[in-house]
User: Which sequence fits this backbone?
């Protein structure tokens, strides 16, 4: 069992990871006048540099040799790199286009999309409460589509791309830093090629907007890697159920920034749609906590039964069907019974 200090530090790491992800909308506008594609390319290039330094510091290279000998895993990593590229690029564009609230919705509905993909692709079976939550989430998307006058496509693409990314990463089964290193290695050459191309046409902002702006573009690698490292530290210290609750911090912060800081409009129909999403997430959370509590109770009962069985004498003598303590001699049978 993990110590209280370990769990406390894991909780702080988790809050730090999701808190940074939640506050990242404050960072992307600082990179203007760079466009979303240029920012994305810098994020890929500098992320590889940062994780390379981390791996060099911890001397963790053995996984590379194993990985290159597994073509299937390499293909999955290429797929993961593709879908996270779509996710990163669209999110940066949405934030810098004044659509932070709709982007936050993507991460609110991501757990619902993940559950739906589990049913459709992995043939998982849902509990009744989970089916209810998915149904409420689908109703929320319809309400928001009516309110927007179009489907909330930014939210849906963000949710589906990140859910696909999570599914692929589960199959790859690499650590957080190692996985990011492999994915950004796939992204590196196309990203570097794009930066060189726009630089040759005089369209790059790196260096043209001053040293401070260039430093901010380089910092995209740190902004990407540090939360992931914190998340990895949290994942090995706190229960998965705790991480599941912490994941809502990021979209809550993003939503708050969109409404309070960026002053994005929240008409009644948008509030109605978000309220339905939050109701669906409340159902999921309640069901997950109830299931975890029942699982723990069952484990405690099994442990108690096992402890009782282990404490009993392995081969206690029996007399008349009643166990006799091992310290007492068993009665000697006689030809007559004593009444």
Assistant:
């Amino acid at each position: 069992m993990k110590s209280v200090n370990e769990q406390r530090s894991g909780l702080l790491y988790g809050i730090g990871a999701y808190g940074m992800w939640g506050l990242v909308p404050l960072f992307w506008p600082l990179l203007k006048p760079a466009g979303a594609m240029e920012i994305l390319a810098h994020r890929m290039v500098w992320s590889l540099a940062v994780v390379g330094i981390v791996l060099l510091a911890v001397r963790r290279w053995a996984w590379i040799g194993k990985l290159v000998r597994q073509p299937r895993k390499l293909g999955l990593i290429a797929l993961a790199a593709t879908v996270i590229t779509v996710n990163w690029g669209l999110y940066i564009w949405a934030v810098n286009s004044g659509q932070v609230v709709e982007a936050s919705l993507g991460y609110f509905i991501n757990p619902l999309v993940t559950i739906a993909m589990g049913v459709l692709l992995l043939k998982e079976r849902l509990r009744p409460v989970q089916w209810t939550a998915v149904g409420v989430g689908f109703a929320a998307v319809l309400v928001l589509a009516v309110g927007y006058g179009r489907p909330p496509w930014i939210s849906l693409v963000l949710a589906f791309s990140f859910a696909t990314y999570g599914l692929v990463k589960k199959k790859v089964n690499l650590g957080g830093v190692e996985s990011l290193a492999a994915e950004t290695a796939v992204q590196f050459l196309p990203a570097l090629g794009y930066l060189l191309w726009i630089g040759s046409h005089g369209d790059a902002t790196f260096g043209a907007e001053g040293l401070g702006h260039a430093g901010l573009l380089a910092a995209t690698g740190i902004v990407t890697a540090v939360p992931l490292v914190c998340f990895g530290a949290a994942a090995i210290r706190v229960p998965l159920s705790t991480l599941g609750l912490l994941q809502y911090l990021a979209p809550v912060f993003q939503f708050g920034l969109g409404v309070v800081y960026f002053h994005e409009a929240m008409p009644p129909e948008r509030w109605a749609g978000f309220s339905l999403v939050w109701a669906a997430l409340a159902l999921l959370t309640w069901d997950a906590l109830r299931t975890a509590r029942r699982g723990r109770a069952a484990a405690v009962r099994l442990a108690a039964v096992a402890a009782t069985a282990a404490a009993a004498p392995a081969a206690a003598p029996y007399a008349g069907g009643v166990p006799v303590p091992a310290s007492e001699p068993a009665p000697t049978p006689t030809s007559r019974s004593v009444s």
